[in-house]
């Protein structure tokens, strides 16, 4: 088994993942108990209200800020800390080591996004929503939500790895991203500003609160901006790794 695959498996069977699944299950059960089931013949307003209610319980911005992002970062740090050892880097080669970490972050981003949305989908179906018909606004919104989740987690993971590389401290990889998100959230509340914070956009809170699930041109623009940020993080880390002297760092340890 390749190293990065073994590291991913270690993350999946970790206590962190178990705790996350228990919390996710609790939110799922709470949503089923709190949200009324749709009547057999439901109009579009009733269906939209159901979607809004489910998302507000299981995928609101506060849950991303204080549950989903921290859990994801703990999984990333667990994998990176196992893989972020200078002998491992020197043995693999910097390029291969970086690609294995990128693969790990991408895999965890896909995994967490899928788990969140599978629980959301199960809640919606059990509550009577069969509105994922091809071409419907609900399918478009669901796929958009899934994709923006993946990109959001990927960005957070890349920022965490950047912080770890620049500070050489594993724990800062979780502290710095969360502190930055909390700081921006606090500034918005203090200024009573109208802008969207990162976790609000990733959670689609702005769409859920307005009840407008249709995609707009601004959504595509912001997704493009997120993808550009991913590319910038990738190249920034790549440049840093090329310039870092790991042989000297390893000799300084002895």
Structural notes for this entry:
The protein contains 12 helices and no strands. 31% of the residues are buried. The chain has helices spanning 3-12, 15-34, 44-58, 61-83, 86-92, 94-126, 137-167, 172-191, 198-202, 205-210, 217-243, 246-253. Mean pLDDT is 82; it is low at 249-254. The chain is globular, with a radius of gyration of 20 Å. The longest helix is centred in the middle third of the chain and has 33 residues, at 94-126. With 254 residues, the protein is an all-alpha fold. The protein has one domain (3-253). Keywords: Membrane, Transmembrane, Transmembrane helix. The chain crosses the membrane at residues 12-32, 65-82, 102-126, 138-164, 170-191, 220-241.
